[in-house]
Design a protein that fits this description.
Blueprint: H1 3-14, H2 19-32, H3 38-45, H4 62-73, H5 77-87, H6 90-99, H7 113-125, H8 131-145, H9 148-158, H10 168-184, H11 193-196, H12 202-217, H13 220-230, E1 252-254, H14 257-264, E2 268-273, E3 277-284, E4 287-291, H15 303-312, E5 317-326, H16 337-345, H17 350-356, E6 359-369, E7 372-373, H18 379-389, E8 397-399, E9 402-405, H19 408-420, E10 425-430, E11 444-447, E12 453-463, E13 472-481, E14 486-493, H20 507-514, E15 518-522, E16 525-528, E17 533-537, E18 540-543, E19 551-554, E20 557-561, H21 573-582
Parallel strand pairs: 1-11, 6-8
Antiparallel strand pairs: 2-9, 2-10, 3-4, 3-5, 5-6, 6-7, 10-11, 12-13, 12-16, 12-17, 13-14, 15-16, 17-20, 18-19
Helix pairs in contact: 2-10, 3-13, 4-6, 4-8, 5-6, 6-9, 7-8, 10-12, 10-13
The structure holds adenosine-5'-triphosphate.
Length: about 575
């Protein structure tokens, strides 16, 4: 397929903010796409060349793209830079300058999706001496062959910032819609969407099957390939792979035990809610992988966990779910979440840090056991499996402390007991419920002391003055809107950030985290690419015309940096709306 066809789709997607129209554009495109190209095309539509779960970066700097544009067009780099300052988007600049390129090469050929995809994948693997020159040559070659709209999206793809406003839910619905139209040889106009996405319609059922498959594979490209090449039924054969990441099941929140029992049913399993770091650990023979709930592979960072699992989890293959809590090896006291969250990014001296902040594993679930998925096995049966296959060892590997009860008094006592032991609260779990990867369905409920917080993304800020010069000292917060894949502003904060790092997260640390993601600066004001997620406490949510979300937070203050969260898994506009209503 010509890359130009895909570039046209990107353009159409960019030209509308209506989710339903975006869905229809992609549905139409996918149903015409040759099945053998679908996998690549769906990755490219998401601005990817590797599935998200691989956590592999393309890693091309904007400066290199500027150079490549210069090589490809002959237009001087400083002119390109000037244009870029004006547009604020190197993709837009690439479009402009390729359009009026001086050196029109005779060898310009039609670009295919294949060519763009393969070249960019190769770029990500080039290392060592001479790698920059080679990368420059390869990018320039692509851009030389590119028409203006192609250059725009190749540039954005290289910079891993496609900006076409395509959320995961839209892509899921589009695969369902395209498949439905193809199978039934019909064409449904975008306006009729409500009829087909109503409850229990055939299209809704297709969409739910696709969602289920996605919760297992985390890969719409693979799903689209199967659906369009082999049919929807084949999705049912998808199995969990113990060594690949899976989305974890999430919890809903309640204020008291009565409400908790109402949601999960009686009797229920109650467990300590450990304040650590969620880990999904896969075992296949001698191989172990550890993933975070953001699907990052942190196996290398936690070598002691891999050893513990090898020695104490007795099975050939499994995926276990649990919370790793850091503790001080001398005092044996739990340490704040921040201390182990630093281990996630650690590349060097891993063994030493592991000695300084060892972790205790508290296992509470199992998704796969000896060749079979256990996600549809009831929770109390899954608990029996972990009880059977895990040898517990104090301060190393435990099963989550659990009681089963239908009594509110006992539940309240258990809550106090958990808080006294230094935990965050307790969890309530439905005994008969399956494990629903990626869902907040209410089979798992959390109860902890009330403090309203939201996980928000920093999208801007201001450079400080006086003793804070050199630091970003005020931060603009945004909430995620999955429908439009946009980050909408909801407030600003500077409170809660410390002057010195020993006291908590400092301005210095936040500035270091944010600096590589600065997109634009004007005077003291900065625009920052959505990357860093922070937990923000506040007094109240108010309606506000000043922010694009339509809401503002009263007295926002920083609780902590959430390095375990990706921007698109932060709090959503829907959650803010719910919280506002509950107030
Ligand atoms: P929070 O900030 O309250 O942890 P969250 O948004 O990070 O919320 P939730 O899924 O809402 O995550 O809350 C449940 C989290 O509690 C789980 O993700 C897990 O990391 C942690 N946890 C600790 N102990 C348990 C347990 N026994 N069972 C399930 N989850 C547990």
């Amino acid at each position: 397929m010509d890359y130009l066809d895909l570039a046209k789709v990107y353009e159409q997607l960019e030209s509308t903010t209506k989710r339903i129209e975006k869905t229809k554009i992609i549905a139409d495109f996918l149903k015409e796409c040759p099945p053998k190209e679908i996998e690549k095309v769906v990755l490219l539509l998401q601005g990817l060349v590797f599935p998200k779960y691989e956590d592999k970066k393309i890693g091309i700097a904007s400066k290199l793209v500027v150079k490549a544009l210069n090589t490809a067009t002959g237009i001087p780099a400083d002119e390109i830079e000037r244009n870029w300052k004006k547009t604020g988007d190197l993709g837009e600049t690439a479009h402009d300058i390729v359009k009026r390129k001086r050196q029109h090469t005779l060898f310009s050929s039609d670009l295919t999706c294949d060519k763009v995809y393969a070249t960019i994948r190769k770029l990500a693997d080039i290392e060592g001496t001479g790698s920059t020159d080679l990368k420059l040559k390869m990018i320039a070659e692509l851009l030389t062959s590119a028409k203006s709209s192609e250059a725009k999206y190749i540039t954005r793809l290289l910079l891993e910032d496609l900006r076409i406003g395509l959320g995961e839910g839209t892509l899921r619905d589009a695969i369902a819609w395209g498949y439905y139209e193809k199978m039934n040889s019909v064409n449904i106009a975008a306006e009729n969407e409500s009829i087909f996405f109503g409850k229990d319609t055939e299209l809704a059922k297709i969409r739910d099957k696709i969602q289920e498959a996605y919760d297992i594979t985390n890969d719409y490209a693979e799903i689209a390939k199967i659906v369009f090449a082999q049919g929807l039924e084949k999705l049912g054969e998808l199995e969990l792979d113990p060594l690949k990441p899976v989305k974890v099941m999430l919890a809903q929140k309640v204020k008291n035990t009565a409400e908790a029992f109402e949601r999960v049913g009686k009797p229920a399993a109650l467990e300590y809610k450990y304040d650590g770091f969620r880990m999904l650990i896969g075992k296949q023979g001698e191989s172990i992988t550890i993933h975070t709930r953001r699907l990052e592979n942190v196996t290398a960072q936690f070598p002691e966990v891999a050893k513990l699992v090898k020695a104490n989890v007795h099975c050939h293959s499994c995926i276990i779910d649990g919370e790793a809590v850091g503790y001080d090896p001398q005092t044996k006291k739990y340490v704040p979440f921040q201390n182990i969250s630093q281990r996630i990014k650690r590349k060097y001296d891993i063994e030493e840090v592991a000695k300084d902040v060892p972790v205790e594993l508290n296992i509470f679930d199992i998704l796969y056991y000896d060749g079979k998925s256990t996600i549809n096995v009831p929770f109390n049966e899954r608990r029996k499996i972990i009880e059977k296959i895990i040898t517990t060892k104090a301060f190393h590997i435990n099963l989550a402390v659990q009681i089963t009860t239908d009594d509110e008094k006992k539940a309240n006592a258990f809550y106090q007991q958990s808080l006294n032991a230094g935990n965050e609260g307790i969890m309530f779990k439905t005994l008969t419920a399956p494990y629903k990867p990626g869902s907040r369905v209410g089979y798992m409920i959390k109860m902890k002391p009330v403090m309203e917080t939201l996980d928000l993304v920093i999208v801007g800020g201001e450079w400080g003055e006086g003793k804070r010069s050199g630091w970003i000292s005020s931060f603009v917060l945004a909430v995620y809107d999955p429908d439009t894949d946009e980050f909408l502003e909801i407030g600003k904060f500077g409170t809660g950030v410390k002057e010195k790092s020993e006291e908590g997260t400092s301005f210095d640390e936040l500035t270091t985290l944010l600096k590589p993601h600065i997109k634009n600066e004007k005077g003291r004001e900065i625009i920052i690419k959505p990357h860093v997620v922070v937990e923000i406490a506040f007094e109240e949510i108010q309606k506000s015309p000043s922010y694009s979300s339509g809401y503002a937070l009263r007295f926002p203050r920083l609780v902590r940096v959430r390095d375990d969260r990706k921007p698109d898994s932060c709090s959503t506009l829907g959650q803010v709306e719910d919280m506002y209503r509950e107030q």
